[in-house]
Write a structure and sequence with these properties.
There is one protein chain. By secondary structure, the protein is mainly alpha-helical. It is 49% helix and 11% strand. A hairpin with a 2-residue loop joins strand 2 and strand 3. The chain is globular, with a radius of gyration of 19 Å. The two termini are 25 Å apart.
Length: 227
């Protein structure tokens, strides 16, 4: 994700900005360029064009999300029909480590909202990261990971859909996919047999996780221990 976001920043620099529609989306020319240039697993051009005659930005979810992040982090701004680099965006070009931090902080913001009790139960980021660091050196299933990082039994059933499936769906959408797009978790569902059940999808941490993520844990004497 970091590499492709950097490609988009360079594209904006080289073209003096990116044309946007009245709805604020990138013009098709940029979307078509991004689809070919990014080669995003699961969103390759052949798959995108199989369901779309023409590509608009919402048809390419990774680009749509990157656009959102760049706006919210003020690396680009919309001005007179174009998405233009800000000073911060121009300064970010070439700084892959700094960009990875920006993307990670945005992608891992809490989906729970401001309820501290709910966040402590379902979005304990230190616990989630520790689980990935300590237990995902090898493949485990989404179900095993879900039981490790959240209280699965607190998710209610909905008709024929079990609470366990709801918990796995939450983890797959809110944790696994962002971490996979950030390059920190490998999701094997594209390599597994077709129609594998969500709970049985295999995941593991990538080498980038150990190089990039540092867990700072408080010690009993008031100090800090870096894992």
């Amino acid at each position: 994700m970091c590499i492709n976001t950097m490609k988009l920043l360079r594209y904006a620099e080289q073209h003096g900005g990116i044309q946007i529609t009245k709805l604020g989306n990138f013009y098709r020319k940029c979307v078509e360029w991004a689809a070919e240039e990014f080669q995003w697993p699961g969103y390759e051009p052949a798959e995108l064009y199989a369901v779309n005659k023409v590509l608009n930005e919402p048809d390419f979810p990774p680009l749509f999300l990157i656009h959102e992040i760049l706006l919210h982090t003020r690396l680009i701004r919309h001005y007179k029909g174009q998405a233009k680099l800000t000073r911060a965006g121009t300064a970010m070009i070439g700084r892959y480590g700094d960009l990875q931090v920006v993307l990670t902080e945005y992608m891992l913001r809490s989906p729970i909202g401001d309820d501290p009790q709910a966040s402590s139960l379902f979005w304990n980021l230190e616990h989630i990261m520790s689980g990935i660091s300590n237990r995902m050196g090898d493949w485990i299933t989404v179900a095993e990971f879900s039981e490790l990082v959240i209280p699965v039994d607190l998710f209610p059933s909905r008709g024929s859909i079990s609470g366990r499936f709801e918990a796995c769906l939450f983890v797959a959408h809110e944790i696994v996919r962002p971490m996979n797009w950030l390059g920190l978790v490998d999701d094997a569902h594209l390599k597994q047999k077709p129609h594998v059940r969500l709970e049985e999808r295999l995941i593991r941490k990538t080498a980038l996780f150990d190089r990039f993520v540092r867990l700072i844990v408080p010690t009993a004497d008031g100090g800090k221990h870096i894992l």
